[in-house]
Known about the structure:
The chain is mostly beta strands and 408 residues long. The protein has one helix at 34-60; strands spanning 75-76, 85-91, 101-103, 106-110, 115-120, 126-131, 141-143, 146-150, 155-160, 166-171, 181-182, 186-190, 195-200, 206-211, 225-227, 230-234, 239-244, 250-255, 265-267, 270-275, 279-284, 290-295, 307-309, 312-316, 321-326, 332-337, 347-349, 353-357, 362-367, 373-378, 388-390, 393-397, 402-407. Helix content is 7%, strand content 40%.
Amino acid sequence: xxxxxxxxxxxxxxxxxxxxxxxxxxxxxxxxxxxxxxxxxxxxxxxxxxxxxxxxxxxxxxxxxxxxxxxxxxxxxxxxxxxxxxxxxxxxxxxxxxxxxxxxxxxxxxxxxxxxxxxxxxxxxxxxxxxxxxxxxxxxxxxxxxxxxxxxxxxxxxxxxxxxxxxxxxxxxxxxxxxxxxxxxxxxxxxxxxxxxxxxxxxxxxxxxxxxxxxxxxxxxxxxxxxxxxxxxxxxxxxxxxxxxxxxxxxxxxxxxxxxxxxxxxxxxxxxxxxxxxxxxxxxxxxxxxxxxxxxxxxxxxxxxxxxxxxxxxxxxxxxxxxxxxxxxxxxxxxxxxxxxxxxxxxxxxxxxxxxxxxxxxxxxxxxxxxxxxxxxxxxxxxxxxxxxxxxxxxxxxxxxxxxxxxx
Length: 408
C-alpha cells in the first residue's frame, strides 16, 4: 500500500494528556449541611490532587520517542545514582542500533533481525514482535496507543502498541533509518530518498513531503525535532531546515560545509546542530542569526546529538572525547577522554550523572562535572543506541543484539 493523497494544509491539535474534569453529582433529594459540604469538597479536592499527581507522575515516567521527547532534550532532573545492577536483558537475533523507548510500562525497540519488539519494561518479558522486510535502525515513537517507526525496507509503519497488529504502512523510495516525531495528526519522518514526510497518524496518507536538495551527498540519518508549529530537520546534504508542520512550507534553511548525521536539538529558543564540517552551531529559533559556533578540530567528528543541561552544552565525539561548552557563548569549559569512540547521545542529569554507551561495548555512568567513571558494564559489541531513563531504571541496546536494563 502506498498512499499518495497530498494535502498541503492540515489543522493540528497537540496531544492533551489531561482528561475532562471529573463531575460529582449529589442526589437531588439530599442537601448536605454546610459541614458535610465542606467535608465533601475537601475529600473531592484531595482525590483530585491525588489523581492529577498520579497522572503527572505516570506521564513523567514515559520516554516515548527518540532522544526522550519531540525537541530532543536528553537532560533529566535526576539520573539514577550508580552503581547499577543488571535487572534483566533480552536477546534478539540481530544487532541493535535503535534506541529504546518506554511508554505505559512497555519498552519498544528495533533490531537488525528486521523486527520491532515490545517488552515488559519491568521484567523484560516479550509481549510481541513484528517482522518487517528490512533491518530496523529507526527508533520508534509511541503516541495514543500506536507505535510508529521506519525500516530499511523503505516503509514507515504504524502498529497497535498493545497487540503489535499492523494499522498501516507507507512506502518511501529508499530505506528509512531516521526516527519519527509524532503529533495527534501527523507522523513526521525522513527517508534516505532525501524527503521529509508528513503522514496521517490515522491512515498513513501523505499530507506533504519536502525534498532535501542534495547535489553531492544523498540520504538522511538525522531525525526531525518539533517545537510549536515548526519542525527542524537536516540531512547528509549538510543543511539545517525549519518548516511549518501545517503545510510543509519552509521557514528558513542554514547551510553547513559538510554532511549532518546528528539530529537537531531545540532548547530555550536555540537550535543546536553539529556537522561533519567539525563545527557545533547554536542558531536562534527563527533562523535569523548564529548565536555562536565552535570550531572543533580535525579529529572532533560529531555523530551523536548535543545535550543541553543547565548552562552547559555537552557534545560527544567519535574519537571518545566529550567536551563541555558554555551555553552563553560556546566557550569550552571541560574535556573528558574515554577509551573508545562515542556515537551514543548521553543522558545528562542535573545531579551530575551522565550515562552513555561506547564503541568499546561499555555502558558508562560518569560524572558530568569531572568525567570520572563511576560505574561501567561491558556488553558484547559496540553501542550505537542511546539510553532511556525511566522510573530510576536505565535501558540501552547493544550491537550484540541485546537490550539491557539496569537499576541502582
